[in-house]
Amino acid sequence: MLTLYYGFLKTNGFMIITINSVGTAIETIYLIVYLIYASRAIRIYTFKLVILFNIGAYGLILVSTSLIIPNRSHRVTAVGWICAVFSVCVFAAPLSIMRIVIKTKSVEYMPFALSFSLTLCAVMWFFYGLLVNDLFIASPNILGFIFGIAQMIIYLVYKNAKKDELPQFKLQELSANDVVRERTTEEEATTTTIAIVSVINSNESGVV
C-alpha cells in the first residue's frame, strides 16, 4: 500500500500503480481466506494488527506527509525513503525461516519456487528502478536479490537432509543409557541378593 501511494505521487508511476494494485488485491483475498479459517483468538489478533498497521500507521504516514511536506517532489523523496525502509524489512523477514531451516535441517516451510520467484522479482524491480533512475525502487531489491540467492543455496544444501537423523541419534543414545542403567540395576540387585544370602548363611553357620 505504501508503494502504491508512492506510485501515485511519482510522475510516470503507471507500472508501480498497476503492479501494486494487483498485489494489494491478492493480499486482501489471502487475508480474507486466512481470517475465515483462523481461530477466534488469531482472528482478533489479526484484526488488531490490520487496524494498527494497515489503517493506523498507513493513515499516519499519508496524513503527515501530506500536511508536513507540501512540496510534491520533497514528499516523493520522503515517501520513497519510507518505502525503501519497509522493503528492506520485507526482504529481511525470511531470515527467521532460514534460521529454522538450518536448525531443523528441513525445507518444509521454505519452498524453492517461492524463493526463486522472490529472487526473480527482485532482479526485475532492480533493473526497472535502474532504468527509470529510481533508487528507492532499485536499492532495496539488491538486498532482496542477495537474500533470495541465500535462500536458494540453503534450500539446495538441506533439501535432501534427513530430518530424523538427530532424533534417531537421541533415541539410540537414550536406549543405550537405559540398557546401561538396567544392567547397573541388575548388578546392584544381584550384589544385594548375594550379600543377604551370605549374611543368612553366616547366621546359620553361627547357630550350628
TrEMBL record:
The keyword Lipid biosynthesis does not apply. One of its GO terms (molecular function) is sugar transmembrane transporter activity. It is a multi-pass membrane protein. Its main location: membrane. It is found in: Cell membrane. The keyword Hydrolase does not apply. The chain crosses the membrane at residues 12-37, 49-70, 76-97, 109-131, 137-158. This is Bidirectional sugar transporter SWEET. Keywords: Cell membrane, Membrane, Repeat, Sugar transport, Transmembrane, Transmembrane helix, Transport. Belongs to the SWEET sugar transporter family. GO terms for cellular component: plasma membrane.
